[in-house]
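step: validate -> pass
step: tokenize input -> pass
step: predict -> running
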Amino acid sequence: MGNMATGFTLARSRSTEVRPIGDEAAVPEGAMPESGPFSIAQLGAVRLNSQYLATHRVITDEISGASAAYKMLRTRVLQRMRRNGWKSLAVTGTRPDEGKSLTAINLSISLARDLETSVMLTDLDLRKPSLHRHLGIRPPYSIHDYLRGAAPLTKVAFRPGFERLGVILNDRPIGDSSETLASPAAGRLVETLKAGPDRIAVFDLPPVLASDDMLAFSPHVDAVLMVVAPGRTRRNDLTAAFRLIEDMNLVGIVLNKSWEDVAPYYYYGKR
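step: predict -> pass
step: emit ->
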């Protein structure tokens, strides 16, 4: 998909509504109080800046080569997860800058376009959150606000303009990240977000070799998708990462940032 590295500094906003970084204003649809099963339809909506998304490699069309590649990935992931009854997926890598966060976003958008699937995407890279930058959003509440009981999911989550897709962001690092991810609150979050016959919960996690966060969270999640990149991922790192996740359900591996003509990325998994 080419080099997708992005990044910039955002001033933290603590306002009462989700605000796009771009020129378009948020759609003022207030979140409903939580009651009964968690529903994406009850979340407030925000209209994202399409030009900003395109600049930051977020795939919003359905006809480009990149979109077609993500559809292929979506189909393979859905087939494997449905066959095994898995409903929660951690997206990770070996080390930073392999493109796992952008892969998590674009895969989630593609999954949500499947008419029989709804998706909740959550930024659980608590050490280096980045989904808010890719989407161009200043979130008034973060996932940490929910995990420490300061805000309900209906205030933390929102709909970013894609049908059947909900998003939970984080805009600041958290010091006790692995302890937070291993907590019962994190486990309850996963169970809540994946509830429903058509739901898949996708979590952006730190790289496996960068910290113990992925290992701390692994008991809560059904399966793992590994993202690697030519020129960034070393063979020894991949071997070491596989050893650490050998007891987890590996959905497959995405080769990201490839300039090969045959496809924006390749995909393969365990037999």
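step: describe -> DSSP finds ten helices and eleven strands in the chain.
step: cleanup -> pass
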